[in-house]
Amino acid sequence: xxxxxxxxxxxxxxxxxxxxxxxxxxxxxxxxxxxxxxxxxxxxxxxxxxxxxxxxxxxxxxxxxxxxxxxxxxxxxxxxxxxxxxxxxxxxxxxxxxxxxxxxxxxxxxxxxxxxxxxxxxxxxxxxxxxxxxxxxxxxxxxxxxxxxxxxxxxxxxxxxxxxxxxxxxxxxxxxxxxxxxxxxxxxxxxxxxxxxxxxxxxxxxxxxxxxxxxxxxxxxxxxxxxxxxxxxxxxxxxxxxxxxxxxxxxxxxxxxxxxxxxxxxxxxxxxxxxxxxxxxxxxxxxxxxxxxxxxxxxxxxxxxxxxxxxxxxxxxxxxxxxxxxxxxxxxxxxxxxxxxxxxxxxxxxxxxxxxxxxxxxxxxxxxxxxxxxxxxxxxxxxxxxxxxxxxxxxxxxxxxxxxxxxxxxxxxxxxxxxxxxxxxxxxxxxxxxxxxxxxxxxxxxxxxxxxxxxxxxxxxxxxxxxxxxxxxxxxxxxxxxxxxx
Length: 486
What we know:
The protein is an alpha+beta fold. The chain folds into 2 domains: 335 residues, no CATH class; 135 residues, CATH 3.30.1330.60. The protein has 7 helices and 19 strands. Strands 1, 2, 3, 5, 6, 7, 8, 9, 10, 11, 12, 13 and 14 form a 13-stranded antiparallel beta sheet that branches.
């Protein structure tokens, strides 16, 4: 549910960095923060399986990718993938951010930090055909792309009058024509438009990934194309603000219809390439067929057509490769925020005035990370050594400057003991750090915690110095400060 804001600063390691001869670093632009709550009931072969309540928060930044690329696909942008040299460049726009997922929605907050089931940083490129590419493959993040879309203004989408024809079931994403839309202020109730997108459908329901750090292939699913239809309903007042009201819906069907004819052989080749990648991803996800329907009411700001709230009812019917029928139905709510971004130079200046030994601060997708290196706990326990409490009080003073920005504490251990033990210890140590921050005056509602065991070492575990460095807690300050005026 992110594209409506993306048509409208970079950490190291996600996208190619500028050279020293480029322009000076720019102030980081406003991020998009989307919070999604969903309540889904699931049946398998007609038998009720259960229901899932999840909450997900995504912080997303756009980063321009302004050069041409030499090949059909963008180069890899994983931190561990081979880096492109200065001559290997993109065709499209780059995006990066962080996703947090909570297993259960907590309505009444207790005075403690909140556990996170899973988090990840991500980056991807939107190519010139409006599709997400990553090292030659199509991403499973974000889960929906291209929805909601505001009225088109000279972009690739199809606009309809109140009596206009309905769009075809699947006009090719890269074959859409250019239309001039009326000015958004002149829209009348009943005006219709449509825009393409992709929606990720998984064979299996979301499950805990804390033990592995990565979802299984069945949980990743595959992103299937759709064309959403929109109808302008008028305006309404919410909390004293006038907002546009739009009704919308789309249907996802797989397998796709017969490939359309193209005048341009290169576009036809790209369409075939896309379908081959989609078929491969669907097969790896165990999906044979999909029929899904989504109906939504959307509130947009009147000034900039940014989405504020999406209330969506969904129904999915999935046929798996092993012959099972999975049915899901329920609702999703999406809230959108456009907060002020964190600025690394400002945070570094504030940190210099504090006593923060063995502390590293760096920009990452979705925010800034303050790493408490070699943090002192009693051996094989989550009991902090007394000297660390002073450091955490200094960190709390730093965090107080950032107007409610959420903070995710991520615990890491050295490679000792069992994997299950390391995971439990890292999570408990992260929780203890949040408790100390609360005691130092940080609002508990701002704090979250997660453990990652020994899966992400920063040094070798062969000697004590390396193990000491790996025993650390990262405080990820998310780009989600208090909302500015819209």
